[in-house]
Structure formats: C-alpha cells, structure tokens
Amino acid sequence: METKEVIRNYWDYRSETYSTEIVEQSEEEWATWKNMLSSTVDRREHLEILDVGTGPGQLA
C-alpha cells in the first residue's frame, strides 16, 4: 500500500469522530482557558495570530 493511500485510509476512518473530542471538555475548562488567554490578549491593540491547524478548535 502506498503512503498516500495509508494516510487517506487513516483519515477516512478517523474523520468519523475527529470533531467529537472537543465536545468532551466542560464549560468550566473552556471558561478557565478563556479567562487566562483574555487577560493577555485583551491588552493588545494589534494582534498577529498564526493558526497552526489545531483541528476542531482545540488549543495547542
């Protein structure tokens, strides 16, 4: 089996549950992250942010 086919097969299988993991985090966990990050980010006027492909919205 070629590398591309192996990768494609993996993600075909994995895509069924890929976005469901984020739901398992509690509201308390989200609030904690939001408070921690907003105390730093809110003080800045101009932000340059790089999205490094963290999937379905999880913080990396």
Q: Can you offer a commentary on this structure?
A:
- It is a single chain.
- With 60 residues, this protein is an all-alpha fold.
- Helices cover 45% and strands 0% of the residues.
- The chain starts with a helix and ends in a 19-residue tail after the last helix.
What is the string of helix and strand elements?
HH
Largest sheet: none
**Structural shape:** elongated
| Strand residue content | under 5%
How far from one another are the termini? 32 Å
Q: Averaging pLDDT over every residue, what do you get?
A: 79
Please supply descriptive tags for the structure shown above.
single chain; mainly alpha; 60 residues
In a nutshell, what does this entry contain?
With 60 residues, the protein is mainly α. 45% of the residues lie in helices and 0% in strands.
Question: Which SSEs are present, and which pair or pack?
Answer:
Layout: H1 3-14, H2 27-41
